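Justification of computing resources. Each target in the renewal requires a structure prediction run like the one illustrated here; the chain below, 137 residues long, is used simply to show the kind of job we budget for.
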Amino acid sequence: MNIPDQYESVNRPPYTEPHIPQQRNTHDQSSANVESLLGNMASMLQDGIDRPRPELLHFSGIETEYVRFITNFNLNIDRRVHDTSTKLSYLVQYCEGDARELIMHCTMLPPDEGYKEACDLLRKTYGRPMLVARKYS
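Resulting structure tokens:
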């Protein structure tokens, strides 16, 4: 049984080319973004390389040097390091003599508690501005 061609054309929609959406050239945009990001990173790395390394001071327990030490420590370690265990380790490392002996036991405490205790002990023992002022008068 042959079906006439007229019948087929009535029931079928006319043939049209399939619609293919035009693709934006996202590859060019992505490449530009990556290049920009890499350029920024390279610039930041170069700035870090060109900048002199900060001097990390040591503290031996001399009261007149405490403010300078703790200011330097806060700027270079405390503000940049987020882990209190690492901060405490640095604090012990950069203290010497009597100052180190004073805070050494703080490493046995939980990190948050130990770091706070070490800072408090140093401040109470060496951060006495009136004593420092009398030494210079």
